[in-house]
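Here comes my example:
=====
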Amino acid sequence: MQSLENKTAFITGGTKGIGYGIAAALMQEGMKVAITGRTQEAADSAAAELNKLGKGEAIGIAADVRNYESQEKAVALMMEKWGRLDLLVANAGLGHFASIQEMTLEQWHETIDTNLTGVFYSLKASLEGLKASKGYFISISSLAGTNFFAKGSAYNASKFGLTGFTQAAMLDLRNEGIRCTTIMPGSVATYFNNHVPNDADAWKIQIEDIGQMVVDLMQMHPRTLPSKIEVRPSMPG
């Protein structure tokens, strides 16, 4: 089993939800984690909570995945502090749900620019660091990346695209020693789409479950690659 002590991770959208759960799980293994959020206040607040875990180290960085220069600067800040990048988790995402008739141009572009183009920007900005460490790229897609539904045109398009992007990246980067995996969760107890996690979410996947999955991937022998993982609640709600 691979030791994660003092390895580093860059997690987009890490101030809450799945990204935060992944950061917490990695830090409990002794990793150093940079999380990004839309504001420095949110990023600093989440990093402060993570640092109370007593293991690893967390820093918060304000960054917008829709802006390539923002991603470059965020990665540069992490590299300046720790000098290496072992794992990129492209987690930042959002959803607008409406019929084609009602979907606005702004909603379409925000969904595609965040969930798909933003992942390309994050990976592009991280490539040199990942090449140097023979690192890992993990994208957080969705079961909506293989199952379409009404009012899901923008979200389905972004997640279908993200699943395909990550699989193509896997083929492009495997000879560089970079492993690529996309995780495709079903219902997760998060703040997604203005939901507030509560006791009624007990049946759903919990953020620590996704965190454990990322730890397991990182600790797996590098000769083996689970390139696409579908994960859903064991029982329906």
